[in-house]
Amino acid sequence: MRYAKGHKDGTRQHIVEVAARKFREEGVAAAGIAGLMAEAGLTNGAFYSHFESKEHLVREAMAHALGRQAALREASPGTSEAWIRGYLSPSHRDGPGQGCFTAALAAEIARHPKPTREAFTGAVTGTIGRIAAEIPEGTPEERESKAMAVYGLMVGTLQIARAVSDKAMSDRILQSGLETALKLIGKA
Description:
Elements: H1 7-26, H2 33-39, H3 54-75, H4 80-87, H5 90-93, H6 101-109, H7 114-133, H8 140-163, H9 167-184
Helix pairs in contact: 1-3, 3-7, 7-8, 8-9
C-alpha cells in the first residue's frame, strides 16, 4: 500500500510527541519502545524505520519538548514574572506529561550519553539566557548567574512539589519557590 507524501514524516512526528509525553510521565527508563509504539498506534517493528535507537528517540523527544517549551515561553504574554508564575503553579505540577522536560527528567538525562547531554545543555543555556535578558540590573555575568539560580530554584521547587505526598505541603513549596524566584528577578 502506498502512503501519501509526508506520511512517514507525520508518523515520525507523532512518535516523537508520544515519546516526549511518556518520558515526562514515566521516565525514559520506564518507557519501553513496545509501549511507546503501542500508544502511538503502531507496531514495535515500525520503530526502526524511524529511529536508529531508543537514545536517538530520546534526543528527538527532548528537542521537541524543549523547543515547544521555548516557543511557548516566547509567545506567552508578559514577562518572566508571568512565566515563573505559570511554571510554579499547581496545574504545571499536576501535568508532568505536558510540563517541563527539565523538571521531569534532568536527573535521568545526567546518566545518558554525551550527545544527549549536549543537546540538553543547549536547551538549558537558551532558557537561562532568556531569563537573564529580563533581569534589569547587573553585568551580563551577574544577570546570567542570577538566571542560573532562578532556573535551578524553579526546577528543584517543581520536582520537590511533585514528589511530596502531602498536597498542602506541595502547595506551600510551590508558593515559597514562587516568592523566592520573583524576589531574585526583582519582581516581588
